[in-house]
């Protein structure tokens, strides 16, 4: 991994009316890393992600995004119910390229295969898929334009622990195989532990810590202490990582 920032947010201020969400916030994302962004509910994680990708214009500050192409998985990034899964995945190609429909659908099938969905799943409508399969299809759609950077908003939300672990591993495998930089917003401590190179903590309108999980967890901040050393956090920090594929716990 290089330490070249692929994304720099500098002195960012965001406000809605009189409510200040971010103030003089600074964040750098290194090329090739998986960065987990955590913070309390309403801290402004999603707004920060939208700011980074240009969907929210900050009141002040600068954004330097060096990625050539980005892919985004939104928190409620539902697929269109009236289109098949493969059509949903191909949609960005229909909209943004001059590829033929047949070629776009062929590329979409390849992306579906990459995330573990076969042609049968591709021919279904979203309502006919499980939650985990929908996440995979949405990930395939985020990957369809060959991004070098992915933004994922709560990728494992709503998944059972085994499906969530499998989805974590998929993100990890794809990011390493494709050389992707990943920024993911999550509340899922397992995800932080299993796949994130660094953790950024958003609190009090700023990034108050950014480091490895072990170092961030030692930070002397009240929210960090309660998040990482509360009952759920302790279980992750203090215990060995489960073996993700099987869902079993390993002592290794
Ligand atoms: N378009 C908007 N207009 C007004 N207020 C907004 C808008 N978008 C977000 N907010 C407010 O900004 C704050 C931060 O919202 P955001 O969704 O970024 O939080 P979050 O950290 O992602 O929360 P959660 O973990 O619960 O998803 C909230 O108080 C929210 O109500």
TrEMBL record:
InterPro entries: AAA+_ATPase (IPR003593), ABC_transporter-like_ATP-bd (IPR003439), ABC_transporter-like_CS (IPR017871), P-loop_NTPase (IPR027417)
Pfam families: ABC_tran
Domain of life, per lineage: Bacteria
Keyword S-adenosyl-L-methionine carried by entry: no
Keyword Nucleotide-binding: yes
Domain ABC transporter: 7-229
Protein keywords: ATP-binding, Nucleotide-binding, Transport
GO molecular function: ATP binding; ATP hydrolysis activity
Name of this chain's protein: ATP-binding cassette domain-containing protein
Taxonomic source organism: Pseudidiomarina andamanensis
Taxonomy of the source species: Bacteria, Pseudomonadati, Pseudomonadota, Gammaproteobacteria, Alteromonadales
């Amino acid at each position: 991994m290089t330490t070249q920032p692929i994304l720099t947010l500098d002195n960012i201020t965001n406000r809605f009316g009189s409510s200040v969400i971010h103030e003089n916030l600074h964040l750098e994302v290194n090329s090739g890393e998986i960065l987990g962004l955590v913070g309390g509910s309403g801290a402004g994680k999603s707004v920060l992600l939208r700011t980074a990708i240009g969907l929210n214009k900050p009141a002040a500050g600068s954004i330097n995004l060096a990625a050539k192409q980005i892919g985004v998985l939104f928190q409620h990034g539902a697929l269109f119910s009236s289109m098949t899964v493969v059509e949903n995945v191909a949609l960005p190609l229909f909209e943004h390229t001059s590829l033929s429909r047949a070629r776009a659908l062929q590329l979409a099938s390849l992306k579906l295969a990459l995330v573990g969905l076969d042609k049968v799943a591709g021919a279904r409508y979203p309502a006919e898929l499980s939650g985990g399969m929908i996440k995979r299809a949405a990930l395939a759609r985020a990957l369809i334009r060959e991004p070098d950077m992915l933004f994922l908003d709560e990728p494992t939300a709503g998944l059972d622990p085994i499906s969530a672990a499998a989805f974590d591993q998929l993100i990890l495998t794809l990011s390493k195989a494709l050389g992707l930089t990943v920024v993911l917003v999550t509340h899922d401590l397992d995800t932080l532990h299993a796949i994130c190179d660094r953790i950024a903590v958003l609190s009090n309108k700023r990034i108050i810590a950014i480091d490895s999980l072990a170092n961030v967890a030692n930070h002397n901040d009240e929210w960090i202490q309660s998040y990482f050393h509360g009952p759920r956090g302790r279980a992750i920090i203090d215990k060995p990582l489960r073996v993700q594929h099987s869902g079993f716990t390993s002592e290794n």
